[in-house]
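F.,

This is the one I mentioned.
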């Protein structure tokens, strides 16, 4: 009948936030995923620990976002925590611990302004590296070192240049870079 609330099993009403987290941990193990899930769950538990799952509504999720933002956390960090919470709710529905039609919180992620820029594909990088070698071979070694290890420029530059030279020499000895 329209307007009639959906019946929710008592077991679903009693489902704890901790049980939701246990579902997520089990899913990560089953999938063989390596992640900093513990850190994400610790932060979520500080806020939602002891709650029943159905007590968590959109307003509470928004309050969590506000609290984490005010604590100085970056949007990317908060978003990874929220994604874990959203996945946990989805697992509860998939596992029939929550009924498919029950109202779950809307979990909207924050905009992230830290998207990486300036990536080059291997052919583009090879052309760039050739030009750079003509201008400054030492800088070219540093750039090549960072590129092949997938390091951000600030991390690459924080490593001793002698390490770059040894690593690049080893890389050239083991990999034919012209094949890339």
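My design for it:
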């Amino acid at each position: 009948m329209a307007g009639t609330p959906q019946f929710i099993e008592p077991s679903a009403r009693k489902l704890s936030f901790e049980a939701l987290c246990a579902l997520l941990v089990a899913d990560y193990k089953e999938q063989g995923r390596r992640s900093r899930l513990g850190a994400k769950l610790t932060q979520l538990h500080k806020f939602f620990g002891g709650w029943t799952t159905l007590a968590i509504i959109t307003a509470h999720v928004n309050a969590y976002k506000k609290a984490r933002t005010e604590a100085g956390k970056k949007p990317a960090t908060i978003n990874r925590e929220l994604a874990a919470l959203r996945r946990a709710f989805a697992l509860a529905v998939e596992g029939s611990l929550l009924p498919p039609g029950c109202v779950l919180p809307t979990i909207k992620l924050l905009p992230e302004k830290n998207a990486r820029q300036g990536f080059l594909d291997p052919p583009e990088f090879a052309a760039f590296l050739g030009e750079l070698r003509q201008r400054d071979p030492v800088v070219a070694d540093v750039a090549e070192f960072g590129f092949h290890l997938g390091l951000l420029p600030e991390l690459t530059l924080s490593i001793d240049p002698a390490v770059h030279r040894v690593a690049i020499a080893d890389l050239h000895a083991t990999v034919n870079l012209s094949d890339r």
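Residues 10-94 form one domain.

Talk soon.
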